[in-house]
Write a structure and sequence with these properties.
By secondary structure, the protein is α/β, with parallel strands linked by helices. The protein has two domains: 2-182, Rossmann fold (3-Layer(aba) Sandwich), CATH 3.40.50.10490; 203-322, CBS-domain (Roll), CATH 3.10.580.10. The chain has 15 helices and twelve strands. The chain has helices at residues 2-31, 34-44, 57-71, 81-84, 111-119, 134-138, 160-179, 184-189, 194-199, 203-206, 222-232, 252-257, 267-270, 284-294, 316-322, and strands spanning 50-54, 76-78, 97-101, 124-128, 141-144, 215-217, 236-240, 246-251, 272-273, 277-278, 298-302, 310-315. The strands form three sheets. It has a five-stranded parallel β-sheet with strand order 2-1-3-4-5, with helices on both faces. The longest helix has 30 residues, at 2-31.
């Protein structure tokens, strides 16, 4: 009975916390005004980097915002306020824009950072919940967090306030990213490793080319085709015409359909014409989707992704090994 009561209590607390934070995010969305647009324009105009500062929980949020900005095309760096007072202010220079986070707007450790931005005319964006706080009064652009309950009943643990700050940082980053027309290909440059990097791999990164490419002339006898299929190990061979263009492919299925008199035929008589191909700069994830849709295991790679000279071949196993699929 006690266990059941505890479970119900914990579940009730969980619902309350998530509901309060969701409500706070709705308040934040409704509170956005011209100051948000001004903040984005200020960051767009920076010839240097966006320097982000925060202390305590705001510091953890600041690190995440800096990482998000940096990975989406806006050079950014986190500077710890306490370390800033002992030399790290040198990481901030004219041409930079400062983004300072403090729920109260009165965090003592931020005093030197704020003073430094004022002394050297470094534009400063302040995020805080108190309109009359030192941070907001000193800021060139002020982003005010709406009044919202913290998730705990005591009202002292930074929860709802940090969630709003984090969401506001994400909103700034996405606004900058979309304005710069930052593409998935750009994104991959900053995320070459892990699952995300794999998903953003290009076909050219994974395809087989050169001597590995299984191609054969259209007038080649089927005996040569069988040898090529066996030697290359892809279970398929590309058939090229006199101009070197991919005219068709021969798969195991094509072989079965032409069993009668197979060795008396040429490649062009057995092939499936106009095969589906893909461009080398397409995302490997797109290639996997195409293979899954057509229930095939290979795609030939051509420059335009629609016929043309074969540049390579991509096998579903290459994508699996890379972690794409």
């Amino acid at each position: 009975m006690e266990s059941k009561t505890s479970s119900e209590t914990f579940l009730k607390i969980g619902h309350r916390v998530v509901s309060r934070e969701a409500a706070a995010l709705n308040l934040l969305a409704d509170s956005l005004n011209d100051s948000f647009a001004q903040a984005v324009e200020l960051m767009l105009g920076a010839t240097g980097r966006v320097i982000i500062c925060g202390m305590g929980k705001s510091g953890h949020v600041a690190r995440k915002i800096a990482a998000t900005l940096a990975s989406t095309g806006t050079p950014a760096h986190f500077v710890h306020p306490a370390e800033a007072s002992h030399g790290d202010l040198g990481m901030m220079a004219q041409g930079d824009v400062a983004l300072i986070l403090s729920n109260s707007g009165e965090t003592p450790e931020l005093a030197d950072v704020i003073a430094y931005t004022r002394r050297f005319n470094i534009p400063m964006i302040g995020i805080a919940s108190r309109v009359n706080s030192t941070l907001i009064k000193q800021s060139d652009v002020a982003l005010i967090l709406p009044k919202a309950e913290e998730a705990c009943d005591t009202g002292v643990v930074p929860t709802t306030s940090t969630t709003m700050t984090l969401a506001l940082g994400d909103a700034l980053a996405i606004a900058l990213m979309e304005h710069r027309q930052f593409t998935p290909e750009n994104f991959r440059q900053f995320h070459p490793g892990g699952k995300l990097g794999a998903r953003l791999s290009k076909v050219a990164d994974l395809m087989h080319s050169g001597n590995e490419l299984p191609v054969i002339p259209a007038d080649a006898p089927m005996s040569d085709v069988l040898i090529a299929i066996s030697q290359k190990g892809f279970g398929v061979v590309g058939v090229i015409d006199q101009g070197g263009t991919l005219a068709g492919i021969i798969t195991d299925g094509d072989l079965r359909r032409h069993m009668n008199g197979l060795l008396e035929m040429t490649a062009s008589e057995v092939m499936t014409a106009n095969p589906k191909t893909i461009a080398p700069d397409a995302l490997a994830e797109t290639a996997v989707a195409n293979m899954n849709e057509r229930q095939i295991t290979c795609l030939f790679v051509t420059e335009a992704g629609n016929g043309g000279v074969p540049l390579g071949i991509l096998h579903i196993h290459d994508c699996l090994r890379a972690g794409v699929a």
